[in-house]
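FIELD: query
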Amino acid sequence: MKLADVSIERPVFATMMIFALIVLGLFSYMKLNIDMYPDVDIPFVTVTTVLRGAGPEQIETDVTKKIEDAVNPVAGVDHIQSTCQEGLSIVVIQFKLEIDGRTAAQEVREKVAAARANLPTEIEDPVITRFDPASLPILTLTVSGSRSGKAITTFTKDVIKKRLENVPGVGAVDLVGGDEREIQVAVDAAKLRAYSLSIEDVIASVGAANMEVPAGSLINGPRDRHIARRTHCPPFGCGGGERRGEGADQPRARERPRGGRPQHPEAVGEQHGPGRRGDQDAD
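FIELD: result
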């Protein structure tokens, strides 16, 4: 009643107070910070493991189940959800809201590292990430032009990507797609049977050709040279590294080591030039 009495007895004062509150509210609204992804800690941790060539059933048995058993004892786990695909295992661990996401991610990382010995040796190192809305990409840039795909990829990687990374506030720039150089070997099945060879023999021969093993360094005055031992194998001459052809284990010195050019078997197939891998995107 006192507020009503004051408003009736002093209408000008009441009106000025209302206008003052309105102006203060508008000023506060204009200064209010706007964030698309507020700083909210969502305790979700994802473990991604790649085992190339394995089916979903093998992924579930050899990878996913073992990772689930390893992270299940972590304190604060609320729910575990897994997805098994061809060559890929994704385990999503949901923690209770009162659990700190960074602490949970560190504990999961320790548990997975301890269980690494029980996982297949062929898998790639598991990638453990914590869900952070602020790390999601805010800009997708597509690069195209009249140049070749390889030239556009090189320009995007060496120029555009580096300039975007130098912009203040940019955390990371990911490159997706592009024309990466690759050598394709088309295998002739009839010639493989004639030579009593298998696909594994071809893979082993390509992988073992022109291998370089570091053999130390040589200091000659102001110059410091790296010594590398190069193993040259003719097609199917090394047998996966067990045998070596002529010229094998030839040490050589140079100032900067470079990888040798692979020796591809011409007897069983054809070699094709660089392949193309999709369009060029930068997130």
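FIELD: remark
The chain has four domains: 1-32, 44-134, 137-181+278-282, 189-267.
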